[in-house]
Design a protein that fits this description.
Belongs to the DExH box helicase family. Its EC number is 3.6.4.13. GO terms for molecular function: ATP binding; hydrolase activity; RNA binding; RNA helicase activity. With 778 residues, the protein is an alpha/beta fold. The chain has an eight-stranded mixed beta sheet, sandwiched between helices. The longest helix is centred in the N-terminal third of the chain and has 23 residues. 48% of the residues lie in helices and 15% in strands. The structure holds adenosine-5'-diphosphate (ADP) and magnesium ion.
Length: 778
């Protein structure tokens, strides 16, 4: 103990000397001046005192006032200054990986140190931290994972949970766990940080914890709603009908219905009509749909383009931030703008993108000032709403939507829908324009639509399936899931919890008494949805690990097949070349990945991606996730050293079977193919194939069933990627395997199998089923 103590003391003195030297240097001094100009600086002493006296405090303040970069740093600095630097361990969580990386880099720069020294970060698949790291920025998911194995957070002195106003699932979950931990760790300090003003909610949750508000200063921002925007830009809504290819077929129909009235050119009246007709107050899904489809045509790319042109031609200098719903839209719009005579001219416009999956190397550019006479335009997801501050923004273009997962507990289906943001978000987006001078915000929806927005967004915990969360709760060993979740700020519906528990039982992660099985323990360690984790385990047990590994990594990163707007058809053809008549998007992914690996080896990876409309960056991410999964599985003893897990990788029907076992019950019957693109599901619903699915290109599919990974509701229900499977697969690996068939059932099945099924498949099934059961039982 005392030797360690001495080492740390010596290290603390070193830290103090280094800190002082930096602060006294000319650059350090300049940095300090900047930091002192931030609104948070005035609250520094009050904050340090409050932290000394209270175990929990809540801090709120305008975005950009210095919460994230400054507050954890104040504590670090004051600990270092008092000669205790090496004894403190500060963790600050972020909802998104990119903000954890950006912020840690910024804080290191402010301290004049390389990243990974005193300040570091850790996110899934990446990290920069060392033995001298005392302030760690990580995603909330990473801290939760740490809590699974380190229930008391030993050695941690301060935890900051940032952006709690977003009410992300991980943040809400963290708050329950930390609230439970505080009595056991009296010395631990918890600081909650929030951008908007609902601080009392969190203060009450922690028994009236003191709150500190950091008064901020922002310039006024003028809000323009769609009515004004149309007038300013002279944009004609009717022309949308000819050019915009924003949505799907369904949407076109809605547009056509609305057209005669649109001609009257009374936008407001039109929307009010829509609002009235579908009773928006109750937020019925129909109301949302009809409004969504109405506005989807208004926020077509052409309108955004018109607004950007207007800014570039008529407005004063200043960077532009465009809020869009997701990476797909961003890349499509970027491609469109690139070919525009003004907006695509690199001598006049610097076009940048900002989204959750962008690589660190690209990140830096969005913070840099554009050269004089060049207009910086950043296309961003709602990530730029609160967690990232781009300083020179003067204009904001807000499409009014964000992609959020919604979850319908009754039908137990998750959907990823671009849906309306809340009024709070809209105000937040607008505020981004007033950081350096008075700004302008162009909301691409009518004022009356804004007024119908919800005041705040529904917490994520109430709108996502809880499968993964419930599994984590179980591995925290905190007792009943329902009881645990009832301690949340806003507990989820019991039905949603029940669905999750049923699901976990069905895949064998929980036993009948809701206890974690071995499989469950293992799945909770994998940084992936339990369903995909199970598929991975199946791949290992059924000896076809490698292709399954690629599929699971692909499904949990994102689709590497690009679909540029103006080359859609070429891209689809390129993808279909990977399909080789196996009627599977998942297998196409495996081929594409393997081709890329070969090309990389020959040094032509980039060319390969270009030729095949593939994203090198996504393939790279899939590649590193593959490595991480392999590592974890090997560690858990599920992989043989001699490659035995790949002995049957060439057996296509087995790979198909494992895909089915993982994705079940996402299944649709091909028998009732209605049109070339639409299918009936087992429960008589209708689904459409995504245009770039390889299966959309075939006239007939020689499989009676399609199993799919993701269902997305955008007016109609679309399935993104699918694989054709046979009856035998469905019977053996669909229902039966995932619901844990008993020996008796198996006997019965045996007759059936012998009768007409794929004998090799049945053989594998019987041989390896036992192995799987063992994993589930113990
Ligand atoms: P908050 O968390 O309150 O929203 P931050 O701590 O993230 O605020 O940012 C405070 C200020 O620090 C910002 O207003 C901006 O001026 C500056 N800043 C933050 N990140 C960077 C960066 N990467 N580069 C330059 N300046 C930055
Ligand atoms: Mg912040």
């Amino acid at each position: 103990g005392s030797v360690m103590e001495k080492v740390l003391q010596r290290r603390s003195l070193q830290m103090r000397n280094m800190q002082r030297a930096w602060q006294e240097s000319p650059e350090g001094n300049k940095m300090l001046d900047f930091r002192k100009s931030l609104p948070s600086f005035k609250e520094k002493e009050r904050l340090l005192q409050a932290i000394a006296r209270n175990q929990v405090i809540v801090i709120s303040g305008e975005t950009g006032c210095g919460k994230t970069t400054q507050l954890p740093q104040y504590i670090l600095e004051s600990e270092i200054e008092s000669g205790r630097g090496a004894f403190c361990n500060i963790i600050c969580t972020q909802p998104r990986r990119i903000s954890a990386m950006a912020v840690s880099e910024r804080v290191s720069a402010e301290r004049g140190e390389p990243l990974g020294e005193t300040v570091g970060y850790k996110v899934r698949l990446e990290g920069m931290k060392g033995k001298n790291t005392h302030l760690l920025f990580c995603t909330s998911g990473i801290l939760l994972r740490r809590l699974l194995s380190d229930h008391n957070l030993n050695g941690v002195t301060h935890v900051f949970v940032d952006e709690i106003h977003e009410r992300g699932m991980n943040e809400d979950f963290l708050l329950i766990v930390l609230k439970d931990l505080l009595p056991r760790r009296r010395d631990l300090r918890l600081i909650l940080m929030s951008a908007t003003l609902n601080a009392e909610l969190f203060s009450n949750y922690f028994g009236g914890a003191p709150t500190i508000h950091i008064p901020g200063f922002t310039y006024p921002v003028q809000a323009h709603f769609l009515e004004d925007v149309l007038e300013m830009t002279g944009y004609k809504l009717t022309s949308l009908n000819q050019v915009d290819d924003y949505g799907q077929e369904k949407l076109w129909k809605t547009q056509r219905q609305l057209l005669p009235r649109k001609r009257k050119n009374q936008i407001t009246a039109l929307v009010e009509d829509a609002l009235h007709k579908s009773n928006f107050e109750n937020y019925s899904s129909r109301a949302r749909d009809s409004l969504a489809s109405w506005t989807a045509d208004c926020i077509g790319f052409n309108l955004i383009e018109a607004v950007l042109c207007h800014i570039c031609r008529k407005e004063c200098p200043g960077a532009v931030l465009v809020f869009m719903t997701g990476w797909e839209d961003i890349s499509c719009l970027r491609d469109q703008l690139k070919s525009h005579p003004l907006l695509g001219d690199p001598n006049r416009v610097l076009l940048l993108t900002c989204h959750g999956s962008m690589p660190t190397s690209e990140q830096k550019f969005i913070f840099e000032k554009a050269p004089p006479n060049i207009r910086k335009i950043v296309l961003a997801t709602n990530m730029a709403e609160a967690s990232i501050t781009i300083n020179d923004i003067v204009f904001v273009v807000d499409c009014g939507k964000a992609k959020e997962t919604t979850y319908d507990a009754l039908n137990n289906t998750p959907c990823l829908l671009p849906s309306w943001i809340s009024q709070a978000s809209a105000r937040q987006r607008r505020g981004r324009a007033g950081r350096v001078q008075p700004g302008q915000c162009y909301h691409l929806y009518p004022r009356c639509v804004y007024e119908a927005f919800a005041e705040y967004q529904l917490p994520e915990l109430l709108r996502t399936p809880l499968n993964s969360l419930c599994l984590q709760i179980k591995s925290l060993q905190v007792g009943s899931i329902g009881e645990f979740l009832s301690a949340a700020l806003q507990p989820p519906e019991p039905l949603a919890v029940q669905n999750a528990v049923d699901f976990l039982k069905r895949i064998g992660a929980l036993d009948e008494k809701e206890n974690l099985t071995n499989l469950g323990k293992f799945l909770s360690m994998l940084p992936v949805d339990p369903k995909l984790g199970k598929m991975l385990v199946m791949g290992a047990i059924f000896r076809c690990f490698d292709p399954v590994l690629t599929i699971v990594s692909g499904l949990s990163v994102r689709d590497p097949f690009l679909l540029p707007q103006e080359k859609k058809n070429l891209a689809e053809i390129a993808k279909s070349r990977f399909s080789a008549k196996d009627y599977s998007d998942h297998m196409a992914l495996v081929r594409a990945y393997e081709g890329w690996k070969d090309a990389e080896r020959e040094g032509s990876g980039y060319e390969y991606c270009w030729r095949n409309f593939l994203s090198a960056q996504t393939l790279q991410a899939i590649h590193s996730l593959r490595k991480q999964f392999t590592f974890i599985l090997r560690d858990a003893g599920l992989l043989d050293e001699d490659g035995g897990n790949n002995k049957l990788s060439h057996n296509q029907s087995l790979v198909r079977a494992v895909i089915c076992s993982g994705l079940f019950p996402g299944i649709t019957s091909v028998v009732h193919r209605e049109t070339s693109m639409s299918f009936k599901t087992m429960d008589d619903g209708q689904v459409f194939l995504y245009a770039n699915s390889v299966n959309a290109r075939y006239q007939t599919i020689p499989y009676p069933w399609l199993v799919f990974g993701e269902k997305i509701k955008v007016n109609a229900v679309f399935i993104r990627d699918s694989t054709g499977i046979s009856d035998s697969i469905l019977i053996l690996f669909g229902g039966a395997l995932s619901s844990g068939v008993q020996a008796g059932h198996l006997k019965m099945l045996q007759g059936y199998i012998d009768f007409f099924m794929d004998p090799s498949l049945a053989e594998c099934f019987l041989k390896f089923k036992e192995e799987l059961d063992k994993l589930i039982q113990k």
